[in-house]
Amino acid sequence: MPEDSDARTTERSGPSPTTGPLGGLLVADFSRILAGPYATMLLADLGAEVVKVEGPTGDDTRTWKPPVRGDTSTYYLGVNRNKRSIALDLKRDDDNRTARELARRADVVIENFRPGGLARFGLDADSVRAANPGVVYCSITGFGTREGRHVPGYDLMVQAVSGLMSLTGDPDGPPYRAGISVFDVMAGNHATIGILAALRHRDDTGEGQLVEVDLLSSALTGLVNHSSAYVAGGAVPTRMGNAHPSVFPYEPLPTADEDLIVTAANDRQFRALCEVLGAAHLAEDPRYSTNAGRTEHRATLRPLLVERLAERGALEWFDLLVEAGVPSGPIQTIDGGFAMAERFGLDPVVSVGEGDRAVPTTRTRRTRRRPAGVAERGGTGMNDQDHGPGTHPGYPTALGASSPTAITLLGQDLAEDVMGKVGFGELAFWLAAQRRPTPGQTRVFEAVLAALADHGFTPTAIVTRLTYLSAPDSVQGALAAGLLGGGSRFLGVTEDTGRFLHTVLAPLDGEHPTDDAAWDALALGTLQGERAAGRRIPGLGHHVHKQGDPRTPALFRIAREEGQFGPHLRLFEAIGRTHPRVLGRTLPLNGAGVCGAALADLGLPIELLRGFALLARTAGLVGQLAEELRAPVANDVFLSVDLNNRAVDPDPYTPDHL
To answer: Is residue 45 located within the same domain as residue 67?
Structure first.
């Protein structure tokens, strides 16, 4: 995604999660992909306010598709719920100041850049702790901050180098990776535990702490018994397929239809297994009466168990064995796992957000805040066991939120950082693009708003005044009536032109013409194609300014002065030069069409171009209402029509095909 495009954040549709055990804590999340975002998601689920800082192109996982929900990566959704997001380019001075101020205010800062990668931005641990001594700063790396600091850290690499892959797969086959990024998730959990411990320390002492987590260390501790076999016993474990080196049975065994995991980790469980299988004598056999014996003689015991298991199917055995207290389970796909969790009343899926914006996500915790069966009095009416993820789940990322003591907007304190310091045009751009515009971008954007604000007695202005005449107690109704009239003839030119130009340029994939002659050739070919297809060219012509729209040269000049004269404006300018050769007449470039080209060059979403026109026209309609209050004309408009109408005979409609 180009630097000037939006980071495609999404508003949270639910309330801000300000309650829960971590309610009131602010987390500045500079991490990306999985380990860090997983940790901060857990903190958000516990009630912390998490502000996710993304680069201008967004978190990498936004582009990891398929699968998707709508157009959003489900990978991204899976680890970023209950967060707010802000897109910052740390190389830009204003964005860098915002990031450092966020870190200065935060209770927790978490990042997973390469060691030292944030130092040049003043966001490394030493810099942040100097400005914020009480902060808990968590750094997640691949291979630590010493000799391995230069090695990039990805889960698959760590699965390989840690030895996990050497333990995964059939004894005579190749090593395999785990089906998930197991060490990223494990490191995320370790980071969360370290952060919670550091916060507990801060509660006692007021001191912040530095928490360091690396994937390789998480992996080695996560290998548990295999790591212990090496460091304490000098043994290097090897692949055993699905078998366990120290316990039998502890693996999948075939049944009448499919494999079933059968686990007998102690003598009692083995006796129960044998009784269910109708082979109680096996538990009395000296070879199999102890775990050590069963492990030693697995080669003779396994076929005896398989022979009995072949009498029933996996699901039938599962119910019988679980009832007898023998751990077992069918090997299922993910949907089967969720179905089983539902069967056991675990409610594995919770909805984040409300209405059409609701997104199903996976529960991470369940808490009981009172004894089971004790009715809740008042409060949210939530299930007495259901307070997660988060007391008030929220859709991943948002623009702003309120707490009892503050209002945040785009990662800024509204009262301290925005009011009186950020103009409305700059703020509108910032809200839509999720990045703060440069002064030059702000000037062009505000010139567009001014160009579209008001044009006298247009249909939208007339309907606004007439609606106010009918319902003077409903200013919002009058404004809404005018805005609803912003369609293809009025205001639609802005959107239509921007979309048209964008459609022409998209196939070029950034390889744009380099001089006027090449732009003219592109414009000429485009015009000829549209003419041959019988389609009109949006943005050409104006019903009033037939000799030239005065807004057009002004917008061209301002965009050039601010270095914002991009490919959309260049193509539209070329269309202005070449269209007489195709159409046989000269038409003015409509200023509203130039506005659409300018907005597209600013990197604003093409889908929202009409929204910016409506934003501008709202100001004009408020002006129309203000003038209506001072010098009413709506009633005269009404009477001029009412007094001059005349009765005519009915003219019944007859469809053309009859």
So the answer is: yes
Instruction: Write the secondary structure of 471-494 as one string of H (helix), E (strand) and C (coil).
Output: CCCCHHHHHHHHHHCCCCCCCHHH
* Strand boundaries in 438-561, DSSP class E: none
Q: Are residues 496 and 601 in the same domain?
A: yes
pLDDT class of 37 with cuts at 50, 70, 90 = very high
* 293: containing domain: 250-331
Nearest residue to 136 via CA among 125, 121, 149: 125
For position 50, which CATH number holds?
3.40.50.10540
Distance, CA of 627 to chain centre: 44
* Separation between Cα atoms, residue 169 and residue 165, nearest integer Å: 8
Evaluate the omega torsion of the peptide bond into residue 303 and state whether it is cis, within 30 degrees of 0: no
Tell me the helix, strand and coil percentages in the chain, rounded to 5: 45, 10, 45
Token pair belonging to 162:
């840690």
Query: Looking at the domain assignment, is residue 245 inside a domain?
Result: no
pLDDT, tens digit, 9 for 90 and up, residues 550-607: 999 999 999 999 999 999 999 999 999 999 999 999 999 999 999 999 999 999 988 8
Q: Is 11 part of a structural domain of the chain?
A: no
623: number of CA atoms within 13 Å, CB side? 11
Q: Looking at the structure, do residues 225 and 260 belong to the same domain, yes or no?
A: no
Residue 110's beta-bridge partner residues? Answer: 29, 138
pLDDT digits (tens, 9 = 90+) for 222-248: 988 888 888 888 988 888 888 888 889
DSSP lists the bridge partners of residue 51 as 28, 84
Same domain for 487 and 629?
yes
Whichever domain contains 312, its CATH number is: 3.30.1540.10
Q: Does a structural domain hold residue 600?
A: yes
107 and 164 part of one domain: yes
Q: Which residue has the tokens 């370290």?
A: 194
Of 298, 331, 364, which residue sits at a domain end? 331
Please compute the mean of the pLDDT values over residues 119-141 and round it to a whole number: 95
What amino acid positions are annotated as catalytic residues?
Answer: 184
pLDDT: which is higher, 286 or 542:
286
- Whether residue 171 is preceded by a cis peptide bond, meaning omega within 30 degrees of 0, is no
DSSP line for 362-403: E------SS-TTPPP-STT---TT---SSSS---S--SEEE-
- 493's tokens: 């030119």
Tell me the C-alpha to C-alpha distance, in Å, between residue 391 and each of 79, 260, 266, 404.
17, 38, 40, 16
Task: Verify that 56 and 135 share a domain, yes or no.
Answer: yes
Whether the ω angle into residue 66 lies within 30 degrees of 0, i.e. cis, is: yes
Most distant CA atoms of the chain, gap in Å? 111
